[in-house]
Amino acid sequence: MSKIVKEFQLPYYAVIFSSQRTDGDKGYAKMADKMVELASLQEGFLGVESARDNELGITVSYWSSLESIKKWKNHSAHLIAQEKGKKVWYQSFSLRVCKVERDNFF
């Protein structure tokens, strides 16, 4: 589980990735850690929040621009992880990109 990320300059973008996994790890945890580490080095990356129970996982990454999201989507290592996800790790998933114009924290 990750910490709540806050304090970004508005507006910014959220990429919401919801997934149902296949059984077993099959190298998933190691690749997920690697992807977060690599994403954090990309220009425009602001942070990430992630939670998973037995059936559903939700990861939200935050970005300063649509261009930075596009560059991350097309990053060579990320493309490899995406393909393995489709073939090995996920039963199903959804991806949503949202513009954040207001946020509140407690």
Automatic annotation (TrEMBL):
The keyword Oxidoreductase applies. InterPro entries: ABM_dom, Dimeric_a/b-barrel, Jasmonate_Hydroxylase-like. One of its GO terms (molecular function) is monooxygenase activity. Pfam families: ABM (PF03992). Residues 12-83 form the ABM domain. It comes from the Bacteria. Keywords: Monooxygenase, Oxidoreductase. This is Antibiotic biosynthesis monooxygenase. It comes from Psychrobacillus lasiicapitis.
